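Re: weekly structure request thread

Next one in the queue (200 aa):
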Amino acid sequence: MRSAEPARQRIRIKSVRTLVTVALVACSARGQHDSPGRRRLQHRSKPQPGTNYNEIDGVAAVTASDAWAVGFHRSTGVLFHVLVEKWNGTAWSVATSASLPSSDDTRLHAADALSSTDIWAVGSITTSTSTQSLIEHWNGTSWSVVPSPAGEPADSELLGIAAVSADDIWLSATHRRVGVSGSLIENWNGSAWRVVSSRR
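Done, posted below.
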């Protein structure tokens, strides 16, 4: 299991790329400009469902009025739970993610969108004994968990995603075997995920 974070209220955006994407989505929707041809980035408040920790790790934007943010949050105890939020062009709101056991630590770290009905988010799920990858898909109506590939190394955690087309999506991950960390690449062929490369 991962170590617990300090018990204090905060919202964290993990990467500069994610922060800029969030700002650009909000700015595009409102059409803010300092001068012709220049957009002005503006802060937009977002929901904070966790009472002592909220983290956004990835954003996927379809249009200026259709974007998703993913991460994880915590209110009590030591377990984190998946956080999914939706941008409608005006404001962010907490969305219902795929059904996951409340007794597990679940996190989303990255997302990518092919269309408003084809969006992917990836991360990890940790039980009392191990960690494995977590893959979720949005079909335009709801989020669902998609099975991880057979042969995936133990303690795999998905950190990045690049969607080329509906039948060509790539994931990057880390995994740990007997205390040694390694890299992992996975690919979606339109019907199933497969491990492409696994190195220690």
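Residues 3-11, 15-21, 23-36 have pLDDT under 50 and may be disordered. Residues 11-199 form a domain with the Neuraminidase fold (CATH 2.120.10.10).
Next request, please.
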